Structures are given as C-alpha cells and as structure tokens.
Structures
1.
Amino acid sequence: MRVLVGAVLGVAASLAFSRAAPAAETVSFGTDWKAQAEHGGYYQAIATGIYRQHGLEVTLRQGGPQVNHGQLLAAGRLDFNIAPNSFVPLNFVSENIPMVAVAAIFQKDPSVLIAHQGQGNDTLAVLKGKPIMIGSDTRIGSWVFLKSKFGYTDDQIRPYTFNLQPFFADKTIAQMAYQSSELYQAEQHGEKVKFFLFGDGGYPPYGSPIVTTDKMIADKPDVVARFVKASLEGWRDYLKNPAPGNALIKADNPKMSDEQLAYAVEKLRQGKAIDGGDAASQGIGIITAARWKQTYDFMVAAGLLDPKTEWQKAFTDRFVKDLKISF
C-alpha cells in the first residue's frame, strides 16, 4: 500500500510540475549557408539540449546560394539570422530596415582567397593583377577592401562557380573560399595551395554576427538574451567536443564527412576565429563600439555607406557584454 501511495503521489507531483513548467519558447533561426562547422555551436546547442535548458525550442534553417534569410527576417518569418559580416547590419540602418546585431561569433571574417603554391610571398598584395574568382556579393564588400588597400582592379574578376574545378584546372587563378572547407577539398585533391585571410590583412568587419529585429528586442528581450547566451555556450562546448553537433550537421548536410568537419574545427581552433581578438578577454560573441566604428569608417571611405548613417543603431552589446563566456 505504501508503494502504491508513493507511486500515486509521484505521478501527481510529476503532473503538477508539468503544469507549472512553462512551455519552451519556439525560435526560428536562419544560417548563412548549408550546414557546416561554421554553424557548429548552434547545432551543438540543439544536440546537447542547451537551448532547451534555456527554455527554447530552436528550429534551424539552412542557408544556400538561392536563400535570402535577411528578407525572411525583415518579413517576420525568422526570429534570428546569421549575417555574412557586419557590413549587413550597417546597410540595414542606412536603408531604415529595423534590424540589429546582438553578437558576433567570428572576431574576424573567416573568408580567404586561395591560390596555388608558387604565387610569391604570403600577403594579399601578391595577388594584385592575378585573375580571381569571386561571387557577386563579394564585389560590394571584401573586394572593395582589396582594391583600396592592395590595388586590385575589376579586370581581375572572374565568375565564381561554387566549386573548385576551374581553380584546379588553372594554376594562375585564385578563388574566394573559406579556409575550413575549400582548403580541405584542395588537399584531398592533392593540390598544394596557400590561403590569405582577409582579417589578417586588416579587413575590419566581424564575421557571422547574429542579427534580429528591433521588434524582437522590444517585445521579447528575455528570449533574445536566452538565445544569445545558449548559442555562445553551444560554441564553447562545440570546440571542446564537436561530436554531438557534427552528427546533426551531417543529418542536415549529408555531403559533410567526419574528416572535413574535423579539419574545419581544427582550423577554427588554430585561427582563434571565435576566441581571439576582443573575445580573448571579454568572452566569445563580444561586439564593441570601437570595432563597429572602424567598419563604419571603412565603408564610408570606400563609398559603401552614407556618412550620415547612425552606425550605433546597427548593433547592441547589451546581450553579450556581461556574459564573458570563454573556453
């Protein structure tokens, strides 16, 4: 009888707890490309229950060449989005689109140019005058930086085809890439290549900032705070043990192999992309006014942004400045 009463009381307590426990807040989040290690922290937060621990049910939507998550965010069909870099929120402000960056995962843009070995020294200056395959969106971002600082010219531009076959076929050509993906593919193909990281050359924007809307911050600041904190915890855990996140990445993008993911994670660790710069002392995800002002100054000088743009509206540090999440 005592066992039966105890069981009944246990069930009653469980039912009472389930009634008292608030339902998880549903959050939709768009990435900037197909699932890869550069999204590992978010997949890790789903796989290990970190989002759940913060009262969130996160639906992650992959990006791709024909996907415009910025438009979906502006239309209210996404709650959060990964922008390619911090140029995007500044352009939002310039165009009176009410969206704002709340954290920056990569302290420097992870984009690179790759070239075949034998191209000369190890600075971006060596590729001046050489044919380079770049995408159309790059022409109004990093390409302007390369022109202004290293003297690149538009006649160097060749069409970007989203694969490495033209690069493999032409030993004189360079190509835009991510150091954690195309470099791996080149090595698997037996090609000896070198890479030039834009961030190491002085390119100022953050890479992959998390963006949301002014309305989301005004209406649900607690959800924004929980999402940012959980995402950063996911990144901290991913670089310690990426296996749970990688399993979900491969489920979303079966083309990703264990070997490529391991290579990419090691590149992220080696390059201090996430925990370097200001993040080394202020925690991962940190964004600072000084860094945004530097990006604003570059964009204005390059003719990419109206100097009257209120650049301070492009970001807020309120959700990251006191977290100090580190490895």
Note: Residues 221-240 form the longest helix (20 residues).
2.
Amino acid sequence: MQIIHLIGAFITLFGSVFLFLGALGVVRMPDSYNRIQAGTKATTLGAMGTLLGIGLYHPSWLGKILLLLLFVVLTNPLSSHALARAAHCIKIPIAKQTVVDKLKECEEYHS
C-alpha cells in the first residue's frame, strides 16, 4: 500500500509542476491568444496529474476522480477555444511575432 501512496504523491507533484508552468506561461506569453493556449495545455495536464495522483493516494475516490478527469478533458479545451474566438471577434490584437492568423484568413475567404 505504501508504494501506491508514493506513486500517487509523485504524480500529484508532477501535476502541480505543470500547473505552475501554466501559470508561468500565462505571465510570460506576449498576447491573450498565447496565454490562453499556454494556460489550457498546462492546466489540463496539471489537473489530470494532480487528480490522478490524489485518486491513487485515495483509491476509494478513484471512480469520482475519473469522472472529474473526463470533465476536465472535455471542457477545458472547449472553453479556451470559446475564449479565443470571443477575443478574436472583439479584435483583441495579436502579438507582433505572430506569423499566421488562420481565423482571419478563414473569415476573409468566406466573406
């Protein structure tokens, strides 16, 4: 039983590191779109690691935690996509380093 607790603790630590990296990405990225992307990828993986580690540490919670993981995997990318589309619709500027704006190209093509 101790080895499972140790593995759960390490996976929780792994998830926490990704959550920290996501926060760091939100601070360091040049524009809103990159911040959304950095935050979403890191927080999805971070939340998955943290929750999975807690589930291994407390096996009686594992079923509920797997449902939470499914919810996070399905909703986090969708919500960030909606935020990025809304930011694009209200014309929040992109960073100068950005080379391609596929959504703008698509809108120009369809109009």
Note: The chain has one domain: 2-110.
